[in-house]
Amino acid sequence: MRRPRTAFFDLSCCEGCQLQVVNAGELLLEIVNLIDLVEFREAMSERHDGPLDVAFVEGSVTDEHAAARLREIRGRAKVLVALGSCASTGGVNGMKNAFDLAEIGRVVYGDGRRFFPTATTRALHQVVPVDYTIHGCPIAIPELLTVLKCILAGIPYTVPDQAVCTECKRNENVCLYDRGVTCLGPVTRAGCNSWCVNNGNICYGCRGLVSNPNEKGMLQVLTSRGISLEHVVRRMEMYNRCREEGPERAR
Ligand code: SF4
Ligand code: SF4
Ligand code: SF4
């Protein structure tokens, strides 16, 4: 059977998710054995302008040039995968949406702002249909491999839809709230195996909001610790500012 013609592309992002792929070590061998890699700027110099079986797209859409590029990639690819939080939720680039675009242009680019027309940040699914989503900032390689195998088998991948706390509990971490630290695990979509908390950090909410967040429970925790809701919401907006646009409005 022919291996799927696969390419990696990037829009606005830090390229950290692609770097994860390049740094995947032995798993990278497993990945490249499953696909026919035709374009991946971070790892090879070859370019490919023809049809694609699978396109991994990292980064969010932050101007009209990126939207046009994404539509062009979508037009060539049978399967389009949103790679990482920038692509899946708008990620940190979404923070721009809290400000006036003209003001942003003035502050960031000064007199040169006419050369950098900017637009409201959008996740990929807010511009084109997306077939598979890999959350995370950065992505976790085992999840990429699972998604790739689903693509090869022609079956959907279901992103885990419970809170990070469920994984954190299974990993027997001491809850950060009991240490006087805030954490977004209670409202964030799992699937990373509570990666950050396992390594002594907080959950920043990079995988997006779980679809049925226990707002009441979260409020109770905050109130009992004297933490303001505003503080947590502000932190949540680091990765979830694009959320208000909603996938249904975009398609
Ligand atoms: S999701 Fe995070 S690591 Fe990946 S490209 Fe965006 S900012 Fe970088
Ligand atoms: S709030 Fe954070 S530290 Fe506490 S259980 Fe949930 S994920 Fe773990
Ligand atoms: S623990 Fe939170 S911030 Fe860290 S990878 Fe998981 S969802 Fe993202």
Give an overview of the whole structure.
The protein is built from 11 helices and 5 strands. It has helices at 16-22, 26-34, 64-76, 85-89, 101-109, 141-153, 164-170, 195-198, 215-225, 229-240, 247-250; strands spanning 5-10, 36-40, 52-58, 77-83, 132-134. Helix 2 (26-34) runs parallel beside helix 6. Strand 3, helix 3 and strand 4 form a beta-alpha-beta unit. Strands 2-1-3-4-5 form a 5-stranded parallel sheet, with helices on both faces. By secondary structure, the protein is of the alpha/beta class. Bound molecules: iron/sulfur cluster (SF4) (3 copies).
Number of helices, where a helix is a run of at least 4 consecutive DSSP H or I residues: 11
The largest sheet has its strands arranged as 2-1-3-4-5
Order of helices and strands: EHHEEHEHHEHHHHHH
Shape: globular
Distance from first to last alpha carbon: 33 Å
Q: Structural class of the secondary structure composition?
A: alpha/beta
| Ligands, ions, cofactors | iron/sulfur cluster
Radius of gyration: 19 Å
**Main beta sheet strand tally, sense and closure:** 5 strands, parallel
Beta content comes to 5-15%
Q: List unreliable stretches of 5+ residues.
A: 245-251
What percent of residues adopt helix (DSSP H or I)? Answer: 25-40%
Mean pLDDT: 93
How many DSSP-defined strands? 5
Task: Please specify the SSE layout and strand pairing.
Blueprint: E1 5-10, H1 16-22, H2 26-34, E2 36-40, E3 52-58, H3 64-76, E4 77-83, H4 85-89, H5 101-109, E5 132-134, H6 141-153, H7 164-170, H8 195-198, H9 215-225, H10 229-240, H11 247-250
The structure holds iron/sulfur cluster (3 copies).
The site of one iron/sulfur cluster has 12 residues, from helix 8.
